[in-house]
């Protein structure tokens, strides 16, 4: 897939996109990443990209002309078709595991990083197809949010992860948080790896991991259980957890 990014600060992307899994994905030709400076498409000697808002108020607003010029140039220099233009903004829909998988199925994405008070509304009306937020808080710009989205969706692109089923075991993939993991040494500072993980019994290990995921979700994000895909064994285990959490009143053992 191809991903383009429009930003006023392209240098913010080079370090992260040039390391680890994302770097290997690009080298393997699985993802093509292109970062563009909005200022390069601004007109005039000073290449102005932002102006005060009409009606007054604090802050600056990104002008529409350089953004449209940038998208037109990117489309003209790309393959047939147009990218799905996604604006990173606090007003966007929340990024989730499912949204990341949805985006990974797109052949061409263009992320627009807002700055200051945001973008001229006509950019939203005429250019943007989707808006994304990574949480209910405000960042200085959309660059960090764009990196988060790119990292999350890249995990769903076939071949990016060494194990093709790895993303299916991530937290939220099946509605639950992921359980604990252990590696060597077997004992560290008095804490031992659970016996079941050293048993070699695949079915027992699988069930233990499922129960640990249920336990962690129950403890940390219980609302996720309302929509999780649970079987009868899961429900019985949750019932056991509920009993463990009941306050002792002399009648419940």
From TrEMBL:
Keyword Aminoacyl-tRNA synthetase: no
Domain of life from the UniProt record: Bacteria
SUPFAM superfamilies in the record: alpha/beta knot
One Gene Ontology cellular component: cytosol
Catalytic activity annotation: guanosine(37) in tRNA + S-adenosyl-L-methionine = N(1)-methylguanosine(37) in tRNA + S-adenosyl-L-homocysteine + H(+)
Localisation per UniProt entry: Cytoplasm
Gene Ontology MF: a single term: tRNA (guanine(37)-N1)-methyltransferase activity
EC number: 2.1.1.228
Chain residues that bind S-adenosyl-L-methionine: 114, 134-139
Segments forming domain tRNA methyltransferase TRMD/TRM10-type: 1-225
Enzyme class: transferase
Alphabetized UniProt keyword annotations: Cytoplasm, Methyltransferase, S-adenosyl-L-methionine, Transferase, tRNA processing
Function: Specifically methylates guanosine-37 in various tRNAs.
Subunit structure: Homodimer.
PANTHER family hit by this protein: TRNA (GUANINE-N(1)-)-METHYLTRANSFERASE
Protein name from the UniProt record: tRNA (guanine-N(1)-)-methyltransferase
Species per Swiss-Prot/TrEMBL record: Candidatus Promineifilum breve
GN (gene name): trmD
